[in-house]
Amino acid sequence: MEIRELLEQVKEGSLPLEEAETYLRKQPYEEYGFAKLDTHREVRSGFPEVIFCSGKPNEYLVEIYQRMFQANGEVFGTRATQEQYALVKKVLPQISYDSVSRILKYEKQGKQRKGNIVVCTAGTADIPVAEEAAQTAEYFGSKVERIYDVGVSGLHRLLAKLDVIQQANCVVAVAGMEGALASVIGGLVSRPVIAVPTSVGYGASFHGLSALLTMINSCANGIAVVNIDNGYGAGYMATQINRLAGE
């Protein structure tokens, strides 16, 4: 819960003063030995803590999901496996899993999504990373438009969607191979572009390094670049930009 939301509830009388005081007196994190859950992250940054599932021991992951859900009434994790989904579902039956983005989440019903973020991919193989970006932005309250498979090998496909792309507050361009999509979009829009290199490609793409270097060296202005396959980072940053556009 954000501080402003908490104070508004106290002002309206929907939250008792004592309960608000208890919330504010809590430690900025909860200690569990194997993890320190940052329960005040949303208070500081406007975004709740998210779980990176890959590599976490099963028993720790299940406990973290339970605690995060209890604290926030919703929970969001990235890079989860089908096995992890099955384990978490035993204790949180309402949890959902998307095998494309590998996102394991439960979010509150009726959540309002605002603004306008467009997520584009060069090819269909880039969609898993793009979906991580899109679903991250949606979880954080942004409205997202998806435009997939509009890479530079068929530029007419991108130009056919240009009116939609130019209306966005922020554009996320996801591409592997040579990573040229971000430069093309950057030269066509007046809003920030977040470039996401993916590990899609043949040998000389070096698992995304080629796309990363292309994006960093783009001659188009207004492009920021996140790490290889980092859809989550792109969705997070896009939401920050989208929120600023709505203020």
Report on this structure:
The structure is a single chain. This protein is of the alpha/beta class and 247 residues long. 41% of the residues lie in helices and 18% in strands. The protein is built from eleven helices and eleven strands. It has a five-stranded parallel beta sheet with strand order 8-7-9-10-11. The chain has a four-stranded mixed beta sheet with strand order 3-4-6-5, sandwiched between helices. Strands 1-2 form a two-stranded antiparallel ribbon. Strand 7, helix 6 and strand 8 form a beta-alpha-beta unit. The chain starts with a helix and ends with a helix. 39% of the residues are buried. The mean pLDDT is 90.
Topology summary:
Elements: H1 3-12, H2 17-25, E1 30-31, E2 36-37, H3 41-45, E3 51-52, H4 58-72, E4 75-78, H5 82-91, E5 96-98, E6 103-106, E7 114-121, H6 127-139, E8 142-147, H7 155-159, H8 162-166, E9 170-175, H9 181-186, E10 193-197, H10 209-216, E11 223-225, H11 231-246
Parallel strand pairs: 3-4, 7-8, 7-9, 9-10, 10-11
Antiparallel strand pairs: 1-2, 4-6, 5-6
Helix pairs in contact: 4-5, 6-11
